Automatic annotation (TrEMBL), chains A, B, C, D:
Cofactor: pyridoxal 5'-phosphate
Origin species: [Ruminococcus] lactaris ATCC 29176
GO process terms (BP): amino acid metabolic process
SUPFAM superfamilies in the record: PLP-dependent transferases (SSF53383)
Gene3D superfamilies: Aspartate Aminotransferase, domain 1, Type I PLP-dependent aspartate aminotransferase-like (Major domain)
Sequence intervals crossing the membrane: none
Keyword Lyase applies: yes
Example GO molecular function: lyase activity
Domain Aromatic amino acid beta-eliminating lyase/threonine aldolase as annotated: residue spans: 13-293
Classification lineage: Bacteria, Bacillati, Bacillota, Clostridia, Lachnospirales
Name the record gives this protein: Beta-eliminating lyase
Family note: Belongs to the threonine aldolase family.
Keywords: Lyase, Pyridoxal phosphate
């Protein structure tokens, strides 16, 4: 059965596996102190146009969010996020487990609005009781969001300005950043590095077996960050596993290429839905496509293809998500076309 | 330069890489709900002689210790360990960071003594103030220990009896369990499963790229353990990465074979040290060899071979550690022999 | 300057001070193991009509909420509360600091609606991804709420039924319970004990120097609760300080009497506002009165009397709160009447 | 039955109760923002000879240790203490519960030795693996110690020098500081303020109903300390309760006077033990007296007087503790003399 269930159904880009084999018996230092980690960091710095960036490799998205956020917040601070933000709703309370509140703003197609952020911060400090409340200590956004939507360069700039004004970092969760960069957008990787104080480049969902690259852009890496990673259980003895993967992803534009492949698949699939008159739930410019299916049709389809339930639309219709990825094969889309 | 610095200098057993390639484009469910995880679990259950065992895969040792220990303790409980136990001294405070004290017992060649454990527990409950103290809620041992030493079957039985009496679980850290099982010992994997309430089978140091298999042997897996793993950042989206590796390690005895290879190397290396009259610091029966070097000799050696500083012996001598592993090549030992 | 700023502006009921003096030089055991704590517990059990109740004394509301909630939740669980609930908004992240998320429901005059609670729980378990989310592990309500409003007996019964169905405790924050019990309501202390699994009787805001009495009603006190209190810094060496106060509060109905005095003051003050045509912001039946003032009038008043800013109503009006209490003197109200 | 069980058996100094009554109906702001807190702080600053000191009032010793230590440590840091330190052994894991390890040094009559502290710190930074370990972030001492012993001025100076060298604060737990200051010692309150970065003046055990005054001496109060106190449940709504007590304790030398009374009682009691040839377990210069009793004698005494079991001396003898305090009445000592 073909699957459009998510963007982590397959293993890794063939090139990554190839490099793992080639380097396998080299004896390397542990914990990320190896030449592949170094090389990967250097390539990422270049790709970001940020020579002073400090980079760490972690294993997965929730781990990264937990470690980055808890390391950058003071105990009396929380992180601001959209109500639908991953940290807010789908990380099993990882942030709270580290001692910090997620302070939620309304979501607009998965995004937060600069104006609402500014108001929140202004209201907080205007509240005479704010010393009895959780201080806003960071802003978390994801790009793409949970709905596959993207911030514009203008929006990022506005958010960054507000954060600067309140002296709090802007953190971008780039679990699917590769798809954002390959989409029709005015936001480049360099922009991300410019506007954000810290962000991560997602590997797991964009061609790696596992791994996310955290990029601190403003000489702002928390003191003893390696020790913090270790303490929270995020330090791999064989740091090479992450270094080699990111070194490969950032060699000859592989990361962007993988993103572009997915975007091509997304365009093709969207065209099919459009042609077949399936209504879209949201205009999502990246690799996640949200459509409304009649329940009958949904049940029929489910026998032959995997996709994700999103939410009930009405009594006879359901919103579902089809995800394409770096690994999607054109024949799968053709097969799906037959079934629709 | 050849390295005997540790047992995680190389990548993974070739067979593991082979399987990763073969399965790479299969579309599998995430978070460990795939057929390879299932198959690996079934094989481990068999190898343990424990059909009711419940098994989870995690990425590394500190992560595993943190998640297992914090999930099995109540907030008012701590974990008992040797002063030199990994959780006590070399995990950057991971256990404390999760809210729990490590209660230390003296170490004897890296091990705790059943008698001292029994006394500790007896004294605790005999202390009229014990409600103002941290309750002992678990016993942590490692096998092999930090010094490469092993518990005997009799010692494990004694520790298990004491834990049973006090209704606290016995937890065995098997980061290097493969080397323990292949050593000259009366403790089998089945014994470990019999005596311990929970233990983990180390992959990272015994042939895997990453990964540890946690085995709950007494139908005692903590409620919603998957959610707890997610919360602490230990859940990989591509759970297959761990499932495929452990499925391979437990196919055709690969795990034991890798251990035996290391033991053969260790025997060979020990014979060389013996022959060359280097004094041993401790009689370590597994893959870590501790010898005392003259400082002059040490400095000379360091130019050509990597090994670990352990501690100062006296003003002119140093204790150092040579580690062999599943990946050690016979020629490396020959080369080292030349240099000694 | 007279103050209606809050209900903790004065010290304690004269009778409490009297008892502190009378018992001062008695040598008593520490940590709550004294005869006054015992006597207070027994009187509270009787007042609650709950002979099996287990009772602990703590120092303040946030401390109580933090200790009770964190002791009754599993690490993977959060507590459900109204968005305006004290734990959600005005405890500086105490609950999150203990590792748990506050899961918010909409507030209706400060209360949560049984129907919305039931839907939330039903939706949670219906969500295929719920293992990646925070489990609802407890329901928190306050009575009176932040707006001084009260649950009806019928509402409490409904909430209790839902909690029972999902096997989660219902917890009632009674920081101002004395005022609730003395108000025009069908909810008695016995009802609170019947419907709630745990609740606290507020002392600080109802006549004590400090102190809250936590009542576990269903033989459900968390294991080693004393140790948990100690661990979180809530155990007073001189437990007598709390025992003597609650013993006094529950002697000859003092607690209820103090509440009734405040209710009488509240009625008098409300009548004055009504007569003077000040619009009420909310119909609040307990000791907090919310009225809308013209900004001019507000500024004038502020020179002579203290009250609390609540929120802006519109550009020329403000919602403010006047609080009366066990300590309010009739002359203060007369004086305020002059100024209005 | 008379009791020498501890120094918190009675209520409070009569003068404190008197002041509570006199101020009872004054309407004061909450959370420590009242004139009595201000006045108490000013008097303490003077008594410490430290005009820039910042002072906060908390309710008890464990609460104070937990809040101060967790607020001054970074997440990757632990606190160094003697193995017998209160934070290490008798606070139910409060420090670990806040996420931090207690790093223990050997105790010498309850004290740590400057030389051993210096070695520990030197060894830590000399260890190539220290990034995988808990960083020493603070030094905790108590004065008097658990054994009633005192640091000399010279020892405090040495400890302070070492802390300065490593840029970590020296924290002194003064739960019984009043008895230390009144003892035969070269350490004054001003010395404590000079050498320590933070310390607390114990009220609970020296004449108050409850309360400890935390003194930050080097303009080093952690950011938003009030919010941290609130978050950990340590903020009393009626801060006046603590302010009035400390204001009284630091009026006309009451604090010192209470200490001196206890010292006089201690001298008298020690003389009796000496005369009656009871061997002392340790030469304890403050209000705790440790003697060795024959088990027969102990059992006989226990019928008429309360004291504390400390530890078994041998099969026929036991070490016990007699504590005197600000509240000890001369007749009690006379009565005890009869019984010895």
């Amino acid at each position: 059965m073909i699957s459009f269930e998510n963007d982590y159904s397959e293993g890794a880009s063939e090139k990554i596996l190839q490099r793992l084999i080639e380097t396998n018996m080299e004896q390397l230092s542990g914990y990320g102190n190896d030449r592949y980690c170094e090389s990967a960091k250097e390539k990422i710095r270049k790709a970001c146009g940020c020579p002073e960036a400090e980079i760490y490799f972690l294993s997965g998205g929730t781990q990264t969010n937990r470690i980055v956020i808890s390391s950058m917040l003071q105990p009396y601070e929380g992180v601001i996020a959209a109500q639908t933000g991953h940290v807010s709703s789908h990380e099993a309370g990882a942030i709270e487990s580290s001692g910090h509140k997620v302070l939620t703003l309304p979501q607009h197609d998965g995004k937060i609005e600069p104006k609402e952020l500014a108001d929140y911060l202004n209201d907080f400090y205007g509240d005479g009781n704010h010393e009895h409340m959780v201080f806003p200590g960071m802003v978390y956004i994801s790009h793409p969001t949970e709905y596959g939507t993207l911030y514009t360069k203008g929006e990022l700039a506005e958010l960054a300005d507000i954060c600067l004004e309140y002296h709090i970092p802007l953190y971008l969760d780039g679990a699917r950043l590769g798809y954002a960069l390959a989409a029709d957008t005015d936001v480049t990787l360099k922009d991300v590095a410019d506007y954000c104080d810290v962000f991560y480049i997602g590997g797991t969902k964009v061609g790696a077996l596992c791994g996310e690259a955290v990029v601190f852009t403003k000489e702002n890496v928390p003191a003893h960050f390696l020790t913090r990673i270790k303490q929270q259980g995020g330090l791999l003895a064989k740091g090479r596993l992450l270094g080699i993967q990111f070194d490969t992803l950032f060699t000859e534009n592989l990361y962007l290429e993988l993103g572009r492949h997915a975007m091509k698949c997304a365009e093709k699939l969207k065209a099919i839905f459009k042609e077949k008159k399936y209504p879209f739930y949201i205009d999502s410019p990246t690799n996640q496509i949200f459509v409304v299916l009649e329940n009958e049709k949904m049940k029929e389809l489910e026998k032959k293809v995997k996709f994700s339930f999103w939410e009930k639309a009405d009594d006879t219709h359901t919103v579902v998500r089809f995800a394409v990825s770096w690994a999607t094969q054109e024949e799968m889309i053709d097969e799906l076309q037959e079934l629709l």
